[in-house]
């Protein structure tokens, strides 16, 4: 059996070693990210005479000689050693003394030659992009409605001790003590303004691994606290593990749109890998200081401090930690959303958008002014709102000349607009008379005038790809997500959340690129999209 590495697998492992996405490599090579993704999947392989191999080698090794990148250099060299063994290059004399850029080029060349000798079907790789899989799972979870209050399944009950002992020994007992601390605080229901729970999770390990019942109890306790209006602050340390980061984001989405607010803060260099040390504090009820025991890898011992002692000692320390951390996800009100929109649009970059209704960015400004007048009674609010919209639209027109602008919408939204003259999901857009047709004509004008502006009109057969959540990615720096309200909650509006952490932004870029490629080419072909919009306008005459 031939175990030599294919080009796509080789490139994927080199990118993983550098913690790079396909989009990041594509940007370095000045090519479209879809090319890199096709290389990784084995759908295409660079020709022998093409200049891509030295360009890739330079991009992946550029700057690794700097001291502060020693960890990245070590990770790449480890992968190179493994790839050299698989490509048959390990036996060459003094391979380890060759510069990294040459070693990368050598393994890529060998994998390229091997792959090009295979037939087309055999070139395909088994590589699955875990980054995009995790993003897909995250967004899929957003679409699921929580069951109504009172019908949510409860975690299996675990007997709880009466009160909390001063010293708790044993991993299971420490985790149960953490659950009981939160339960007791919520049941005591502290005074308004004092309903706050703070805890840390700095360990590389997941504390509730292999403890499904305990995790169910923990999750139920947190949910109950949020439902009763408690605010929860969590501090964690982000690692190189993107799956863990996205799992934390998913947790935030699961706990959004409740009476209380859940906020997660992160530090890149918080704490140490081992041994872990955690703090769990509930206002009005004390704190648990949790330590690693003999294993050195997981918390096994805890000291309980009651509120009289915890407030003046642990409280200030936790607040200092919060001040020195950054929120992983920020929740925005509508005004903050538009302010951030204007701010993020001040930074250039590709704009990738997946909405359930047509974006306000595609509406002519004079028409948008009419919509604002109809939707907002107060004149001052109208002026302020139009100012924010104008700033975002101006930057949209600035970037549309230099950066890729991709919008995904359900086709049925346009069909409903043509049939009823109303937008199904955006109550701010209230067309009258021929204004809906004018909007579509303006959209055709944008598609015609700007090569980098594209729209995908997704048919009902592929509508499941988009789901319910609305989200967008701007450049390499911002994700914005709308979390729909949960049934059984008092919330009746979408929570607007933003993420600016680089590795997560990169994962969303990758996911959008793959999603775009999965959409039927006919649905995103510019000429076909324009033709469809013209047909819809004709039905409105």
What does this structure look like?
- This protein has 541 residues and is of the alpha+beta class.
- The strands form 2 sheets. The chain has an 8-stranded mixed beta sheet with strand order 1-7-6-5-2-3-4-8, sandwiched between helices. A 7-stranded mixed beta sheet has the order 9-15-14-13-10-11-12, sandwiched between helices.
- Strand 2, helix 9 and strand 3 form a beta-alpha-beta unit.
- Helix 7 runs parallel beside helix 10 and helix 7 crosses helix 17.
- The longest helix is centred in the C-terminal third of the chain and has 21 residues.
Protein traits:
541 residues; alpha+beta; eight-stranded mixed beta sheet; seven-stranded mixed beta sheet
Structural class assignment: alpha+beta
Strand content: 5-15%
The percent range for helix content is 40-55%
Main β-sheet description: 8 strands, mixed
| Overall pLDDT | 81
Shape: flat
- The radius of gyration computed from the alpha-carbon positions, rounded to a whole number of angstroms, is 27 Å
Tell me the distance between the termini. 66 Å
Strand count:
15
Tally of separate helices:
19
Unreliable segments (pLDDT under 50, ≥5 consecutive)? 143-161, 487-491
| Strand order in space, largest sheet | 1-7-6-5-2-3-4-8
């Amino acid at each position: 059996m031939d175990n030599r590495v294919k080009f796509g697998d080789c490139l994927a492992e080199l990118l993983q070693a550098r913690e790079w996405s396909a989009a990041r490599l594509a940007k370095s090579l000045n090519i479209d990210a879809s090319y890199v993704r096709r290389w990784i999947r084995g759908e295409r392989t660079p020709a022998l005479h093409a200049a891509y191999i030295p360009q890739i080698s330079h991009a992946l090794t550029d700057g690794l000689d700097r001291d502060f990148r020693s960890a990245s250099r070590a990770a790449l060299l480890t992968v190179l050693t493994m790839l050299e063994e698989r490509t048959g290059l390990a036996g060459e004399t003094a391979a380890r003394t060759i510069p990294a850029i040459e070693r990368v080029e050598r393994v890529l060349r060998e994998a390229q030659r091997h792959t090009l000798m295979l037939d087309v079907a055999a070139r395909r790789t088994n590589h699955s992009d875990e980054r995009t899989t995790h993003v897909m799972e995250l967004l899929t979870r957003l679409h699921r409605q929580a069951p109504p209050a009172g019908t949510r399944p409860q975690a299996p009950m675990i007997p709880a001790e009466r009160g909390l002992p001063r010293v708790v020994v044993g991993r299971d007992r420490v985790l149960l003590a953490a659950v009981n601390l939160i339960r007791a605080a919520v049941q005591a229901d502290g005074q308004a303004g004092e309903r706050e729970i703070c805890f840390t999770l700095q360990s590389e390990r997941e504390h509730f691994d292999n403890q499904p019942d305990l995790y169910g109890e923990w999750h139920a306790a947190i949910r109950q606290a949020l439902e009763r209006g408690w605010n929860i602050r969590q501090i964690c340390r982000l690692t190189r593990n993107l799956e863990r980061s996205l799992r934390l984001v998913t947790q935030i989405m699961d706990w959004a749109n409740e009476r209380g607010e859940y906020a997660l803060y992160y530090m890149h260099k918080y704490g140490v890998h081992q041994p872990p040390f955690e703090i769990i504090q509930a206002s009005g009820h004390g704190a648990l200081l949790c330590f690693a025991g003999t294993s050195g890898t997981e918390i096994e011992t805890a000291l309980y401090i009651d509120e009289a002692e915890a407030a003046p000692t642990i409280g200030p320390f936790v607040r200092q930690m919060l001040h020195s951390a950054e929120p992983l996800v920020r929740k925005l009100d509508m005004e903050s959303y538009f302010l951030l929109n204007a701010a993020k649009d001040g930074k250039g970059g590709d704009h990738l958008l997946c909405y359930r209704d047509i974006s306000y960015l595609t509406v002519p400004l004079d028409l948008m002014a009419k919509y604002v007048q109809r939707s907002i009674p107060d004149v001052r609010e109208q002026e302020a709102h139009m100012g924010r919209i104008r700033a975002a639209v101006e930057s949209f027109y600035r970037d549309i000349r230099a950066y890729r602008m991709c919008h995904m919408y359900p086709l049925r939204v346009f069909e409903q607009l043509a049939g009823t003259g109303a937008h199904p999901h955006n109550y701010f857009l209230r067309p009258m008379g021929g204004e809906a047709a004018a909007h579509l004509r303006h959209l055709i004008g944008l598609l015609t005038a700007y090569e980098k502006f594209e729209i995908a009109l997704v048919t009902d057969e592929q509508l499941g790809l988009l789901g319910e959540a609305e989200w967008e990615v701007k450049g390499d720096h911002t994700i914005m997500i709308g979390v729909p309200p949960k049934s059984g909650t008092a919330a009746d509006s979408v929570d607007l959340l933003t993420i600016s952490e680089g590795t997560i932004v990169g994962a969303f870029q990758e996911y959008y690129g793959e999603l775009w490629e999965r959409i039927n080419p006919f649905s995103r072909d510019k000429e076909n999209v324009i033709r469809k919009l013209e047909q819809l306008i004709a039905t409105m005459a």
